[in-house]
Amino acid sequence: MRRSFDFLYFWKVQSNLTPVHMVKKAMFSLLALSMGLGLSACGDGDTKTAGGGPSGTEAGNAITAQIMTAGKTPAALAKVRLMDSEGLDSEKAYSAETDKNGNVTIEGVADGDYTLEAKLDGEALQIPVKIAGESVDLGKDNLKKMATVSGFVGDKSSKGTVKVRGLEHSAKVVDGNFTLDSLPAGVLSLVFISDVKDSDTSSTYLKVEAGKESKSSTFADESRALLLDDFQDSNYQNRFMPARTYDGGWWFFSYSEENVTPSYIVGDNHIFTLEDIDGNIVAHVAAEMGAVVKDSAGEAHWPWATVGIELGKSDKSICYDISSVDSVAFRIKGKGSIVFAVVDANLSLEKQKIAQYEHALPEDWERISVPLADILNDQYSYKCVNQLDWDFKATTEDNVVDFWLDDIELIGGNRLSIWGK
């Protein structure tokens, strides 16, 4: 069996042959009516919210949780906030408070993806939850020390507001700079909303640690909602994952250890290098493709190497419908050839590449646009896709493939339809 390495930027390691680390699932929220729906407390042991789905009358699901302090004692009277995971408008959030035992119940929750935030005395937490037709018990979770994020939105003259998607946090931008404090640990999706009328919003994301201050990465215009990556944020996750699903969307570099020698890789993770060329950050990796080797059983193993991006979560059982996408565009240059592939990792290994397109790497940057309809294997469809790959193919005497990549973009469709929001 071949060996492969899918090396991811933070703590995730995932490949078709690698176990998947799943994030905690569940969530909730209810959009408050403009007139407001009150909270009804039913004794010390039963703090609840009132109302039912977005209309306030629909039967919804019940969400329960127990919030503990960092010291593992009940977080009595902790403030709890419920928001749509993509939301920026805190007026549509729902509020609750834990009882003396740290318990909270939210009733009448409509199906959807939400974020729970709880906070008390300098400690906070966030929990992503998906509601799909049944009540959810989130169990017990502990608060942690609050975090702080500061950053620069890209222009000293910029004024406006930075908000956290799915959480009730915002900060004014002064001379292009901002600071957000009292944040829960975890991954945050930040959106800059300029004071300039009709200007585009821009966004970034980062993972923050409890009790620490972090710096945000570069903000990218959200009008290019299907620009999967331009690497300007200098990290290894695609830009436009749906909020709160940060167990996926990772770039990786995989290769056969027996007969491939990689170059331009970073540290022990063997992820590809991100290089700054006059302010433009691009991906760069190379590999010397060795000879075919045979194992003890006489089975031949061909050299292979792949740069890939997960479209969604690292759980390969979850796939994404890109039927609305007309083409995939990207900029490339280098030496050798690549075979661009669309992958459905739920299929057997030999059938996973449902569409393929080979292209020789040019010496200078070239933008390639691959029409998806033209390369699809007739027996498949694009309704279940979870990965895009660029497979290496040596075409020179030294058997070296030198690969540069930038500006990967899906043309057609829209972000939320693909992510199944």
Describe the structure in your own words.
By secondary structure, the chain is mainly beta. It folds into three domains: 39-143, Immunoglobulin-like, CATH 2.60.40; 147-222, Immunoglobulin-like, CATH 2.60.40; 251-418, Galactose-binding lectin (Jelly Rolls, Sandwich). Helix content is 2%, strand content 45%. The protein has helices at 372-375, 415-418, and strands at residues 39-41, 47-49, 61-68, 79-84, 94-97, 103-109, 112-120, 123-131, 136-142, 144-145, 147-152, 160-164, 170-173, 177-183, 186-194, 202-208, 213-215, 220-221, 227-229, 251-255, 260-263, 265-266, 271-277, 280-289, 293-294, 300-301, 305-310, 327-335, 337-343, 353-360, 366-371, 387-393, 400-411. The longest helix is centred in the last third of the chain and has 4 residues, at 372-375. 42% of the residues are buried.
CATH fold assignment of the largest domain: Jelly Rolls
CATH class of the largest domain: Mainly Beta
Helical stretch tally: 2
Structural class: mainly beta
How many structurally independent domains?
A: 3
Q: What general outline do the C-alpha atoms trace?
A: globular
Radius of gyration: 23 Å
Helical fraction: under 10%
| Corresponding CATH superfamily of the largest domain | Galactose-binding lectin
How is the main sheet built? Answer: 8 strands, antiparallel
- How many β-strand runs? 33
Beta percentage is over 45%
CATH-derived architecture of the largest domain? Sandwich
